[in-house]
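Format is sequence with structure; example below:
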Amino acid sequence: MSSASTSSTSLTVSRILHAGYVFECDGARIAFDTIFENPFSRNCHAFPDVRFDEAAIRRQRFDAVFISHFHDDHCSLESLDLLDRATPLYLYCLFDELFDMIRQLGFTSVQALRLNEPVAVGPFQVTPREAMDADVDSMFQVRAAGLNVLNVVDSWIDDGTLAQLVREGPWDMVLWPFQTMREIEVLAPSRAPPAPPALPEEWLPQLRALAPRYVVPSSCQFVQEPWSWYNRAFFPVSYAYFTREVTAALPGTQVVRLDPSVAVRLDGTSLRPAQPLDWVVPVGPQDVDYACEGHASAPPTAEIAQHFAALTAAQLARVVEYCTMELPGKYGDVPAASDYFDKPRIWQLSLYDHTGQATRWRYRLEPDGTATIEEGGGGLGWTTDIPAAKLYAALEDGESLTSMYLRINDTVFDAAAERALAEADIVDDPLIRCLFSDTFGAYQAAQLRRLLAR
């Protein structure tokens, strides 16, 4: 074990990466959202930078691993593959398919978590708590050694759950998802309003209500590829800003930054440094922070596409088949949430190859869900640009929306379309709906295929 042993009156909390933690108490060790990859989720590069000693990770033994939800930056089969197959895994997920995938990987104890039903592991009592999006997320309340820790993961908290959590107090430590991400705004940067750094208005009142002794800025800890414009636009909140705002609002609370590998020992009166995780290896400067510069320098998709490798002939054929055959048939299965597409619209899909050259399709989208390739002209009502390599990755590797560099409506339409677009939802984009609206676990399924094929 890399963490120093703890007595029954203290709890050691060690950071892995993003929402990953190891908790140790009285000789027992549990872990949360175990991601041992850099980058993870394709293009999430650890920030600060680390590497993982995979051989050392394979030697680790955990009494249990808890996974908060199915998103690939929290549940990755390639990371789970490093763990002993006898490790009990507890997963909050409403879809049986993910449990089946994990069992196919060889794990012998994979159990579903139920909200508000505690799980006892040695000195630990871990209770999943309801997040605002209960179909997806959960949070964890961890009790051990007389201490009470709330791991919010990257969830949002509604008023009902907040009242419940206040009743569960007092709280010794809260792991709070400090970094908001402009995931929707970067899809349509030319249409996103400027947004100076600010904490969501709910956060400080919620933290005041919880009144923890210590707050750890949690989740995030990643940036995109070094060349990516997202690194200047995606992350509006810095560690320094979060610390300043929370300290001013909660003068009795200490904000404690835990970088990957860093560990602390919590007891009833203090928080002290502990032995770092030796299988999470810091690389380069660790005292780094985020800087947001807005959307002014968003490069065109033609330039972004040149950072990706050329598709093979077979891969290109797969993409073309999807655009010409599958996509028109799929469109009617996934209705839009807003009413923009209640009128006929001409949609242009542009795919950019590794040289930045575009191939374009135009579709006539009818209110009844019919989509046909449009050979003629007609006024455009929606546009979607994407690197061809990323569309292939979404189709075959389960790549998610946040790493695809999709660009939506990056043009000026006629006056009527512009007025209607003001009420449209960006995620009503036809390609987003066709790729993601009725799929589950595509990323993990692609991982499983690769792992089983070894």
User: Anything to note?
Assistant: Confidence is low (pLDDT under 50) at residues 1-7. DSSP finds twelve helices and 24 strands in the chain. The longest strand covers residues 345-352. The chain has two domains: 11-282, 301-453.
